[in-house]
């Protein structure tokens, strides 16, 4: 019994270390920020989406480090089990996480 989270798709604003300052960007985002993306918030958001939409609990596993940068996309996995006893089934569902900008705004879907 495969578990599918096809309806889970959420955009999350993760304002991580947003400091002021001027920039001379000419309409394009900088290629690198040097800041780590707040992966704890990404994991928590995916977990809350699964709980709200599917009524299930899953542990979310993201990479240990991801630079906060537009287009620096990555994959996290929702891991858990459904059912009980002999009908218990493990699942590992990938979630693609897309960084929309250099400020930590991400969109994810399974």
Please, could you describe this protein's structure?
This protein has 110 residues and is of the alpha+beta class. The protein has one domain (33-109). The chain contains one helix and five strands. Strands 1-5-4-3-2 form a five-stranded antiparallel beta sheet, covered by helices on one side. 19% of the residues are buried.
Spell out the blueprint of helices and strands.
Layout: E1 9-13, H1 39-54, E2 59-61, E3 74-82, E4 89-99, E5 105-109
Antiparallel strand pairs: 1-5, 2-3, 3-4, 4-5
- Would you count the extended β strands for me? 5
Compute the number of helices.
1
- Helix fraction, binned, reads 10-25%
Strand order of the largest sheet: 1-5-4-3-2
Radius of gyration of CA atoms, rounded to a whole number: 16 Å
Kindly give the count of domains. 1
Query: How much strand content do the residues show?
Result: 25-35%
Structural class: alpha+beta
Output mean pLDDT: 80
Give a short overview.
By secondary structure, this protein is of the alpha+beta class. It has one helix at 39-54, and strands at residues 9-13, 59-61, 74-82, 89-99, 105-109. The chain has one domain.
Features:
single chain, 110 residues, alpha+beta, 5 strands
